[in-house]
Fold each of these.
Amino acid sequence: MFYLLNPGNLFVLLNKASKLIKTIIVPLIIVSLIFSLFISPKDYIQGDSVRIMYVHVPSSWIALICFSLISFLTILNFLFKFKNAFIIYKSLAPIGFVFCFISIVTGSIWGQPTWGTFWAWDARLTSMLILLVFYILFIFSYKFIKDQNLSLRICTGISILGLINLFIIKYSVSFWSTLHQPASVKVLGKTSIHKSMLLPLSLMLLVFLLYCALIFLMKYRTEIIRMKKKGLKRL
Amino acid sequence: MNLNIFFMDGYGLYVWSAFIFTFLVCFVLFFKTKKSLNKLENDYKEEVKKLSAEQTDTLKTRKIPREILTSQSKAK
C-alpha cells in the first residue's frame, strides 16, 4: 500500500488509469442515462419523480465516502506526518463538496413533488447541510491558512467533528421521526429495492465513481506538478 | 411521438432539472480542473525551457518530470 502511495509510482500508474477511464466513461454515461430516464419503471406511489433517485442517492453516497476518506487521511497525516496524504485529501475534498451540493439540490428538487416542499429542517437534510458546511470549512482551512501546522490541526478537528456528523447522517432516519425515507439499499442487511431499479442505480453509481476517479487523478496530477514546479528552482 | 417520455406525467420538470443540474455541475468541475491542469503543465514546460541543457538532462532522469514532459509532447 505504501509503495502505491509513493508520489512517483502513483503518478505514473494513475496517469494510465486516467486514460482508461476517459475511454469507458462516455458510453457508460449514455447507457446509465437510458436506463435511468427511460427503461427503469415508475414507482407505484411517487411515479416518475423516483428517477431523481438515480442521481441523488449515488451523489449522497459519494459525499459520505469522500468525507470518510478525507477524515482518515487527515488523521493519518496528523499522527504520522504522512505528506502524501495531504495531496490526496486536497484532491478529494472538492469532489466530495460538489457531490454533497448535488445531493442537497437534487434532494430538494425531489422534495417538492414528494413532500410538497423544497426544504424542511428535517434531521437527515439538516445533517447533510452541516456536512456541506464541514466541506467548506475544510477546503478553506487548507487553502487560506498559510501556517501548515495550524492548518493541519484545524483540518483534523473538522474531520473528527465531521465523522460524528457522518454517524448522525447515517442514523438520523432511525433516531428521529423524519420526512426522509430509511435506506433501501443496505450493504449488510436485506436490500428492499427491486432489481429493475437497482440496475440503473448501480450503473449511475459506477459512472459517478469513475468520474470521481478521473477528477481525482487530474487534481492529483495538478498538485504534483505544482510541487515539481517549485522544485525546479532548486535544480 | 410520445411526448410523455419527456413530460413524465407532470414530473418531467423535476426529473430533467435534477439530471441537467447534476451533469452541468459535473461538466463545470471537469473543465475547470482540466483548464487548471493544462495551464500548470504549460507553465512547467515554459520553466523547463529556461533551464540549462545539463539541468534538463538531470530532470529527465527523474520519474515524475519525465512523465510530465512526455505527456506534454504527446498532447502536442
Amino acid sequence: MNRIRHPSPIRREVPVNRRDFIILAIKGTAAMVLVKGLDGIFRPPEVQAWTSPLRFVFLVDTYKCIGCGFCVKACKLENEIPFDADVSRTWVERYVVTGDGEVFADTPKEARYGFTTGRIELGRGKFKDIPREKIKKAFFVPKLCNQCAKPSCVQVCPVGATYQNADGVVLVDRKWCIGCGYCIMACPYGMRFFHPTYHVADKCNFCYHRINQGLLPACVQECPTGARQIGNIKNPEDPVEKIIRTRQVAIHKPEYGTNPQVYYIGLGEEVR
Amino acid sequence: MVLEELWTIKELFVYPNEYIYWAIQIVMYPYMTGLVAGAFVLSSLYHLFGIKQLKEIARFALVFSFALLMVAPLTLLLHLANPERSLYIALTPHFTSAIASFGVVLFVYTSVVGTELWFLFRKHLVEVSLKLKGKANKSWAEKIRYVVHSILTLGAWDVSDTSLKQDAKAIKVLAGAGIPIACFLHGYAGFIFGSVKANALWMTPLMPVIFIMSAIVSGVALCLLVYIIIMEIKKSLVSRKSAANSGNTLKEIKGVEMNAMQTTVKYLIFFMIFSISLELLDLVFRGYTAVKSWDILRNVIYGKDFINIFLLQYVLGSLVPFILLLLPGLTVRRLIPALLLVLFGVFMMRWNVVIGGQSFSLTFSGYMDYQMPIIPRSLDTFKEGLGGALLIAVLPFIFFWLLNKVLPVLQTKEPD
C-alpha cells in the first residue's frame, strides 16, 4: 500500500534557547573584538607607514623666503578657503630682532597679500614702527601643517574623522567631523581651524588632491624662490631627501614629541 | 567671517588660526558634570556609609543629580559645530581620544543613577498605581498619573518586606558602584583638559583630581542650597496654613533642615580644603619649576586674569565662604550667601581653566581676550553666549520640577 509521505514534522522545540543565544552572542562579540585587536597589534598604522614606499616630507628654506605671500594666496584659492576669512592652511611669519634682543613677530592677514608695510602688527588695530637702524636681523618663516609622524590631532579626534595615511599625510573626513574642536586644541602649531563654510576642522594636507596626481602642492608651485619643496623621504634619489639627510635641518617645537615632517633650513631660535 | 572672531580679540603675536574655540558651553560642561558628580557623592554618603543625618537630603540629592545629568550632555550638543553627528561618538568611537568614551561613561552613569532612583522609589510607584487602579471615576490627570506610574514600576509589583530589603541592598550596591563612576565621569572631564599637551595651562596630571574635588564642593553646595530654599518655602507655607492639615509640622521641618545643614557643611568644608590645596599646589609648582611656558602663564595668572583668579575665584569664591561657614553659630541667613559664593567660586575656576587656558597664544608671545556674546544676534551667538549659558543653568531646575511630579522627593516623612 502506498502511503502518503508526509513532510517531516516541523520541529517544535526552539533550536536555541535564550541563555544559549546570549552566550553565543557574547562569544561572537569577543571573537570579533579579538580579531580586530590582533589586526591592530600586528598591522598597526606605524607598520603600514613603515612598509609604505612613500612618505611625504616638506622642506622650507627660510633663507629663500621673500615674504611675497604668493603661497598663501595660492593655497586659499586652490583649497577653497574663503579668501577674506582670517584663517588659513598656510601662512608666512615675519621676525624682526632689534639690537637689544627684542623680538617682534607678525603675520598680517596670514601674509595673503604679502608684507606691504614695514610696520609690525600688534593686534587691536595697533602697529609699531621699528627704525631701520635698530634692526639687527629680520627674516620670514613660512608655516604649514607638519604632517607629524605622531600627530596629536589624530590622537584626540573622538570619532576618527581625522586620520593619517600610510604616506604620512593627515587628512580630515568632512562628512564625519562632529566639530568638537578638540583637534584644534591639541595641535601645538595652531594649524587647524574650523572651515568657515563647512564648519568642520580643516588643515593643510600638502594639497593631497594634487600630490597624489603627481602634481606639486599649490604653495610649492607658486613660490618664486623655491623656498618651499616637497619630497619623498623613502626615496634615496629624491633631492629633498638628500638635503634632509645630509644638511643641518631643524623641526618646529620638537619638545611636544609629535615628530614633525616639515623640515626647516635656517630655523632661528626666535621662531615661535 | 570666522564665527569665533565674534568673541575673540587678539593681541601681539598670535597664530592666524588661533581663536577662543572652546567658549562658554565648554565652561558649562565641566561645571554641570561637576554638579552631577557632587550631588551623587552627597547622596551616596548616606546610602553607602549610612550617615543618618543625611537621609533626607540624600534622596533629594540623587534626584537632583539625575536632573543635572540630563543637562550635562546638552552643553556639548550646543557646542558642537555639527550636533546632528554627535551620535558618531558612539558609532565610531576612536578610543585614543579622551572624548570618545564620553558616550560610554555617560550611558553607564545614567543607568546607575536611573536604576538607583527606581529602586529608591519603586515602593512609592507601586503604591500610587495600586491606589489609582482601585479608584472609580478617575479624572484625566489621575488617568495620566496612573499610566505613568504603572509603566514606571516596570511590572515589578512585589512590595513585600523581603523584596524591599532586596531593593535596599541593590541601592547600596549601586551607590557604591556609583561613586567611582561619578568620579570617573568628572575626573575624565578633567583628563580631557589635562591631557592637552599643546596647552601649557591645562597640561597637568593634577587636573582630574582638582576637577573631582571642586566638583564635589559645587555639587554639595548646590544640593544644600536648593534643599534649604525648598525647606524655607515649605516652612513659610506651613506656618501660613494650620499645621494640622499638613503632613509635616513646622518643628519637624526645622529639625530635619538643621540636621542636614550641619552635617553637610562639615563635608563641604572638608572637600573645599582639599580642592583649594590642590589648586595652590599646582600654582606653586608651576612657579617653582618655571619651565618655558611660565613667562606667559605668569603674565596671564598674575596680570590679565588676576581679578578672575585671585579676587573672584580665590577670595570671593573660596576664602569668604570658608570664613562664613567656619564662624560658629551657623544660620540659614549666613549659609545661603556662603553657598552661593562657593558655587560662584567653582564656576570661576571652570572659567579660569577653560577661557584662561585659551587666553594666551601657542606662540607664547600673544594674548587672546574672550568677550562673551550677551545679546544673541544669531543662533550661534545665542548658543555660545549668555543665553545658552542661562538655558543650561535653568534647565536642571525644570527637569527637577518634572521629576518631582512623579517622585515624592521633598516629603520629609516616609511616604508610608
